[in-house]
Amino acid sequence: MEICLRLLTAAPRTRAQLDEALRRRAVPQQAADAALDRLTRAGLIDDAAFARAWVDTRHRGRGLARRALTAELRQRGVDEGNVRAAVAGLGPEQEAEAARRLVEAKLAATRGRPLATRMRRLAGLLARKGYPAGLAYRVIREALEQEGIDPGRAGLETEAALDADLAVTAEPDPDGDPDMA
């Protein structure tokens, strides 16, 4: 119980995270289950509330899309029902608006680069945040058109071509900016 309370004081945790912490400390499983059940009944462990708060803060703060948020929650041991319920609150328009903010924030850093490079880097940013290629293409195209640039000049006139470019987004940016690869 003491181990769990100490961990919960530092940050909210899922039941699976606390169970893993107790396992690493060689706490017998029966004692661990009893402590976790007691904390759950007391309302100190609530995976559904954790998932909702996680989605809200990570989407607003880091601009993560539903796909990335789903992966993070699964990694933290949140069950599928709670994961689906938490990400269901993000609508397509919220996701598109977050993608627009991300592109807008990074667009200036790509100026002076070839158009294909700009598009690839912006698409890579969105791909790492979990945005689908179609949405990424649309948002990038809109942003470039607002600058008076025809994205078709980059030779990436279709979403399929952008999908191919997204396959190389795991490579780090040579300038050292991980969000611009």
Essential attributes:
181 residues; mainly alpha; 2 domains
Number of spatially distinct domains: 2
Instruction: State the distance separating the first and last CA atoms.
Output: 44 Å
Report the oligomer. Answer: single chain
| Average pLDDT figure | 84
- State the order of secondary-structure elements, H for helix, E for strand: HHHHHHHHHH
Q: What percentage of residues falls in helices of 4 or more residues?
A: 55-70%
Low-confidence stretches: 167-181
Q: In angstroms, what is the radius of gyration?
A: 21 Å
The largest sheet is: none
Separate helix tally = 10
What is the SS-derived class? mainly alpha
Strand content: under 5%
Q: What would the principal axes of the Cα set say about the shape? A: elongated
Number of strands: 0
Chain-wise SSE layout:
Layout: H1 2-10, H2 15-24, H3 29-41, H4 47-62, H5 66-75, H6 80-88, H7 92-107, H8 115-128, H9 133-146, H10 159-166
Structure, explained:
The chain is mostly helical and 181 residues long. It has 2 domains: 2-88, no CATH class; 92-180. It is built from 10 helices and no strands. Helix 7 crosses helix 9 (133-146). The termini are far apart. The model is unreliable at 167-181 (pLDDT under 50).
In short:
The chain is mainly α and 181 residues long. The protein is 66% helix and 0% strand.
